[in-house]
Inverse folding.
């Protein structure tokens, strides 16, 4: 029997590069998105990385950024909850595209 889905919106399985950018724009963390929805995502980071509680989330092939908070962190897996709507990424952030 499948486990009941507890999320408010369904997530789409993906494998995309993304960036976690601290709110003061001082640090950038590379990550890989494993699944994503309108309200959040599951990402993979290096185990040694210290995740900020609040940050900006940028898909490396996109033109928007979203404010986000850390929902949970287990090993190299991190749950991200989005706050507010996507907004155009500043020019400096768009330079992080791969």
């Amino acid at each position: 029997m499948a486990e009941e889905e507890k999320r408010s919106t369904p997530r789409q399985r993906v494998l995309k590069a993304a960036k976690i950018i601290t709110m003061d724009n001082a640090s950038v963390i590379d990550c890989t998105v494993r699944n994503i929805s309108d309200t959040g995502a599951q990402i993979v980071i290096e185990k040694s990385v210290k995740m900020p509680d609040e940050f900006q989330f940028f898909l490396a092939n996109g033109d928007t950024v979203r404010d986000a908070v850390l929902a949970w962190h287990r090993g190299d897996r991190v749950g991200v909850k989005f706050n507010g709507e996507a907004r155009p990424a500043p020019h400096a952030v768009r330079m992080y595209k791969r």
Notes: The chain has a mean pLDDT of 87. The CA atoms of residues 6 and 79 lie 14 Å apart.
